[in-house]
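Work package 3, deliverable 3.1, input record:
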Amino acid sequence: MRREVPLMITAIVGFTLIIVYFVPHPPFSDIRDLFADWFSIIAAFAIYLGILSLLKINVEKIHRKKSGWQFSWVTILGFALFVVVGITEGRDFGEYGTRYYYLYDRIYYPLMATMFSILAFFIGSASYRAFRARNREATLLLLAAFFVMLGRVPIGYYLSSWLPEGWRMGDMANAIMSYPQMAGQRAVMIGIALGIVSTSLRVILGIERTFLGGD
Amino acid sequence: MRVRIFSGQLLKPVLLGLILLFILSFQPQAFCQDTSAVLDTIPPAAPENVTAKDTPYDRGRSITVNWEKSMDDGGGAFDVTGYEIMRATEVDGEYKLIGTTTAGAQHFIDNDVRDGVGYFYSIRVTDGVNLSVSAPSLAAMSKPQWVNLRRVNVFVFAAALTFAILYFINRAKRGKELFIRKIAGLEAVDDAVGRATEMGRKIYYVPGISDMDNMQTIAGLTILGRVAKVAAEYEARLEVPVSRSMVMVSAREVMKEAYSNAGRPDAFNEDLVYYITDDQFGYAAAMDGLFVREKPAAIFFQGQFYAESLILAETGNSVGAIQIAGTAAPAQIPFFITACDYTLIGEELFAASAYLSKDPKLLGSLKGQDVGKFIFLAAILLGVILITFEILNIGPWFTVG
């Protein structure tokens, strides 16, 4: 029963949502919203398990003085700070002008932006490795990257402005992005779409059950 | 010494200051009227041919209103700033404002109606000062439809694909040998886990940052089952830091089962799967910290990723870990290819479970996918030929409503 009940629920929900996609008439149209609500409710309860896990792991790390245990203090204190301030602010805790908003705007948001901005440096280091002409394919990639990157910046336009229209850097970049890149991207997308349909079918029919803990 | 203003001592500077202040604060516009507003007394031409009809193929409770633009919108006086949609339940009744659109708009969807009630619509055009009102539409009534006919093409294709998948699953069950090409990334799982065992370092498994409602997460968890089983057999330490609580619960079940199947249930500990944060970059920061401090021997990225993909993969690369990634997010695939040793591209992620388990039923479903690819390929070739020779445009057949 431990395995059969989840499989049955999966099958019922899966088939119902397929019907909903093609039949907009009530009560089917309302079922989708109902399922979405249930998902949110389950996720809301699951978050408590997540919090317990977070606190347990970090408290244990501090207790045993594991590598990087000092950061666990930052995690626990940061978590406690946001929770306490959020609760004391009441229902409108996220509104502009509240203390929670201040913490969000002055601490959380800059930290998030910092992490995102690191991406620029990682793109630099990754590009350096990717665009080395080690073999024929890598050389083609390098050439494509050369035209696309230069074609997207003003200097590319100035460098190639003496060329006839249609042969300038920007034109080359557009051609690369519109034809070979787009064709490759669409091939990948078609494969992904088919993969999703196939996997969904396997899950709904109960053939695929590893995600439930089955083999 | 006392200073008296009106004694003459400070009178002049004060008066001069006041005059100066008056001059500086003088705004000629305040004494002039806005001639443009006053002079424009000509209202824009009213929109014409206002029609309202039930929004097709929907759940009801929606009416679509269409109209022809005012002559002064994009032409004539060029002064239309927007349209206001008015509604009444009787043709001569009181029309109430229910929505606005910008200039250039020619339709509006009213999602605030009751099924079975007749509504009349009138469109008011404005140039910011003057208004013109159109003649009202005929009555429109919303009702739900049973079938979304715009999705018939999806239904036909899905039915054909389902039939093909079920057919090949059945064939595989009867013992028919099915060929499946080698997927390098999945072949490398044993090597990666073995390397971690030899080095005595950890393995990190990252199942993406989406929740259990994402098919990529489910695909990622199926691969986790295999990785966990190998890790249990090799006695390597596998950790799964997750960004969603529900994924944590599911991943624990998957790992527990995998360790049991490997004959090592005692080696499983719930704390091997732990929650970090739902936040995208908070999660990336935590993972980077783990990678740098723990210097894992192998890292798996399998699931849905966004901008954090390269942040994670480059950090993993910098600590010298063998990295196997897999995602169906097209924008992240190039990043993983660049920074990881092996990458499962798109559909390979979904094929992984069948590939690793060699279960004939799962392998049969892969064969069914090939039929879908054949249909797409045939449609693309046919479409190219038909459009090149200007015979027929079959593009709309593949448009989903």
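Chain B has a mean pLDDT of 89.
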